[in-house]
What we know:
Layout: H1 3-7, H2 11-19, H3 25-43, E1 46-49, H4 51-67, E2 78-82, H5 109-116, E3 120-125, E4 137-138, E5 142-143, E6 145-146, E7 149-153, H6 159-167, E8 172-177, H7 183-189, E9 192-195, E10 214-219, H8 222-232, E11 262-265, H9 276-293, E12 296-299, H10 308-320, H11 327-330, H12 336-345, H13 350-371, E13 376-380, H14 412-417, E14 421-428, E15 434-441, H15 446-459
Parallel strand pairs: 2-3, 2-8, 11-12, 11-13
Antiparallel strand pairs: 1-3, 4-5, 6-7, 8-10, 9-10, 9-14, 13-15, 14-15
Helix pairs in contact: 3-4, 6-7, 9-15, 10-12, 10-13
Amino acid sequence: MTDEELGFLPATVLAPMIRQKKISPVEVVGTVLKRIERLEPKVNAFAYLAADRAMDQARKAEAELMSGRPLGPLHGLTFTIKDLFWAKDMPTQTGSFINQGQMIAEDSPAVERMYAAGGIALGKTTVSEFGWSGISNCPLTGITHNPWKHGYNAGASSAGAGAAAAAGYGALHQGSDGAGSVRMPAHFCGIFGLKPTYGRVPYHPVGAGDYTSHIGPMTRTVADSALMMSVMSGPHPLDHTTMEAGPADYLGRLDDGVRGKRAAFSMDLGHARVDPDVAALVRAGAEAWAKDAGVELVDVTPPWGTTGPGLAREFWSAHMSRLSQYLPQWEAKMDAHLVACIKDGVSVMMPQYQAMRARKYAYVADIHRWFQDWDFLITPTVSVAAFRAELIIPAHWPQHAWDWMQWAEFSYPFNMSGNPATTVPCGFTEAGLPVGLQIVGKRFDDLGVFQASRAFERARPWADKRPAL
C-alpha cells in the first residue's frame, strides 16, 4: 500500500484491517510518517513532529495486537494534537515565541482519551498565535499552506489539523473552535469538521473566553469524526462545564437519515456579505441535500442575526486583552494583528463587560427560542474561498487592523450559543478551491447534525477528492 493510499484511508476502514492483522500498526505509522517527511516542507502542518515516539508506540501496539489482549477502538490508528492542547511528552507552544519550548507534564483529557482508545499521536499541529485568528500564518511556525494551493490560507486556529487531514497525514485530527476554528479550516481545506455542543468534549484547562471554546474532530469522512467523538466525549472532573451524559451511538446511528426534518436556509443571517462563487456552491449543495435527504428547506432571515457582529467583536478584543501582560517584553515577536486586537480590548472596563454579557445571554436565548421551530439551520461556513496566507482579510474586502471576522460571520454565533455545527464540503470554485456548507443543529443534538452531514455526504460525496501535492 502506497503512502498516499494509506494516508487517505478512513479510520473506519483501517481499524478492522489492523484487528484482522491485514496491516500492522508499525506499517501504518511508518508509512504515514514517510508521507509526512516527503510533503511537510510544502505544507508545514506540524509545530512538532513526534516521529520516534510514534514508532515506539506503534511497536508496542503491534505487540499488544499479537498478544491477543483486548484492543481499544483506535488501536494502531494515528492522530494529531492541536498545539493548544497539552501533551506531556511534547512541547505546547501555542503558536507563540512566548511559550517556545514549553513542556507541560499532563495530557489534556481529549488527548488522554485518544491514547486510552489505542491511538498513536504523530505530533502537534500548527495554530495561529494563541489561536486568536482565522489565518494560517503564525510568528513561531510560519505559514501553514493550504494543500489545494500553496501560499494560501488553510484556516485557523486549527490550521495544521485541517491541512494535515487534507494532505493525507492519516485520518484523525483534533481541533478546537472558539469562533470557527474547526469549521473555518475544514471549509478552506475541503474536509469535514464538527464543533460539538458546548460541554460535550472536556476542555482543560477551561478557556477564559466565557464558555465559547469547543474541542472537535477534523477528518475527511463523517464516520471518522463520529468515531473520534465516541472516544473524546463525556464528563470529566477537570472541566466543570462538561455534560453528565456520555456520547450517543454516533457511528451506529449515522445512517438513520433526516427525512421529514425541517431546515432553515440563510445565505447572510440578515447582514453578512458572501462572495458570489461561494454563495452559488452553498445554495446548490443545500438544495441537492434537501431533495436527496427528504428535508424541507425554507429560506429565512433569523431575527437574531444582526445582533451578533457587534457582540462578537466586543468580546473578541476584550478576551484577547488578557494577553496585554506580554506586550512590554514580546510585542515585537507577536502577530501584529493580534497586538492591534489586544490594544483595542484593554479599554473594556468591568461594568461594560458585564453589560456585554447580559446582551450576549439574551442573544443566546433568542437563538435557542428560534430553534424550537427548526431542526437545522444551513448557511455558508465562510464567506470567501482561500486567499493568500500573508493577508488577514482578502484583498477585495474592506481592510481592518485585525477584524478577520467580517469574512467569517457564520461561525461565532454558535460558539456563544453552544449549538452543534458541522462543515461539509460542497464543491470547488473555478480556481479549484474548496467551499464548505455549515449545518447547525439544536443544542445537544450532535447525533442529528452527524446524521444530516452523513446524508449530505451521500448526496454530494467529497472524500475521493484529493489535492495534487
